[in-house]
Design a protein that fits this description.
Elements (H helix, E strand, L loop, with lengths): L6 H15 L8 H8 L3 H15 L3 E4 L2 E4 L12 H17 L5 H13 L3 H16 L4 H16 L3 E6 L5 E14 L4 E8 L5 E5 L3 E6 L12 H5 L12 E7 L4 H6 L7 E4 L5 E7 L6 H5 L5 E5 L1 H17 L4
Antiparallel strand pairs: 1-2, 3-4, 3-7, 4-5, 5-6, 8-10, 8-11, 9-10
């Protein structure tokens, strides 16, 4: 016996079709639209026909692809040039963290591009969107991260399989409190209450292998403050310890060091010869190792001894690797 016709479901599908066709620069074929809506191809054709004939939506047709015409747009968003540029920069950072076609990012870029009144920002948003759409799809990755985002937005725990930096995989339940982007790592961390440790900890989204939304709900405690939580770290590390780090930069890079706000505890002192000393306190100097090594011979680690020894050993090994015969 065929399923009973549900007009509410039909309306929802038509709205979804309208949104999808308005959020692409390359368009969808009726088969692609059907796949995105989880319906058959004839249904997708009917939705396009309904929007065109009954609603009066104007379509552009490029070969076998459809997209919403330029005349069918959302009302303009009231952002001034400074606000619009801030949005552009933030989305550019997110785009750099992605290597695949992220539908949520595409639709965000599309809606903002349709509504912002700043022409130069709209131009670059369109460019970002075209770049993202050309990337390969990663449906499993997007499903995993989408589940975590849904848990965060709806206050629902997520059961995950997580692989840590040492390659160990565990199953645990996370209650997502916040999503923290880290530009230096080109990734996003989810700060979540962890069922295994019973603590709020950061987890890299790209190390979550599987995610399943659970039925219960939770509320983020009023005492949770992401800025206070990461204030003492160089990045996202937490802990009760504190390391005093002293770095001496050469005159070659001193202007850049002076001009950059590295850490809230940082203090700078000019050195003879044009160099600069940077002194700061962090939860753990271990987290700073890759960053310090990136400066090569342009920085000398004075303290702590553990960081100085690590950098010295790494540079010795590097010198041996590149030694001429």
């Amino acid at each position: 016996m065929p399923a009973e016709y549900d007009p509410g479901d039909h309306f929802r599908r038509v709205v979804e079709a309208f949104m999808l066709l308005g959020e692409t620069t390359v368009g969808f074929s009726t088969k692609e639209l059907a796949d995105r809506l989880a319906v058959d191809q004839r249904s997708a054709q009917r939705y396009i026909g309904f929007l065109r004939d009954e609603v009066g939506v104007e379509f552009e047709k490029r070969g076998h692809r459809y997209l919403i015409g330029e005349g069918v747009k959302l009302p303009p968003m009231q952002l001034d040039v400074h606000q619009a540029t801030t949005v552009l920069v933030a989305l550019r950072l997110l785009q750099q963290m992605r290597t695949d076609n992220d539908p949520a990012l595409v639709t965000t870029l599309a809606r903002l591009g349709q509504t912002l009144r700043v022409p130069i920002v709209r131009r670059y948003l369109a460019g970002l969107m075209a770049t993202v759409e050309r990337r390969p799809a990663a449906k499993e990755r997007r499903q995993v991260e989408g589940t975590v985002v849904e848990g965060f937005a709806k206050g629902r725990p997520v059961e995950v399989e997580y692989t840590d930096g040492k390659g160990k995989t565990t199953t645990r339940v996370l209650r997502p409190y916040f999503l923290e982007p880290r530009a230096e790592a080109r990734t996003i961390y989810v700060f979540a209450h962890d069922s295994a440790s019973k603590e709020v900890r950061p987890f890299r989204l790209d190390r979550i292998e599987r995610a399943r939304l659970l039925g219960e709900t939770f509320t983020v405690p009023d005492s949770f403050d992401i800025d206070a939580l990461v204030a003492g770290s160089w990045g996202i590390w937490q802990g009760a310890g504190e390391d005093e780090v002293v770095l001496r930069f050469s005159s070659e890079v001193a202007p850049r060091v002076r001009a950059t706000p590295w850490h809230q505890s940082a203090q700078q002192t000019d050195l003879p010869g044009g160099g600069v000393e940077l002194r700061l306190r962090v939860v753990s100097a271990v987290e700073m190792r890759p960053w310090v090594l990136g400066w090569g011979s342009l920085v000398e680690v004075v303290a702590p001894p553990s960081l100085r020894e690590h950098v010295a050993e790494s540079m010795r090994a590097g010198a041996e690797m590149y030694a001429l015969p």
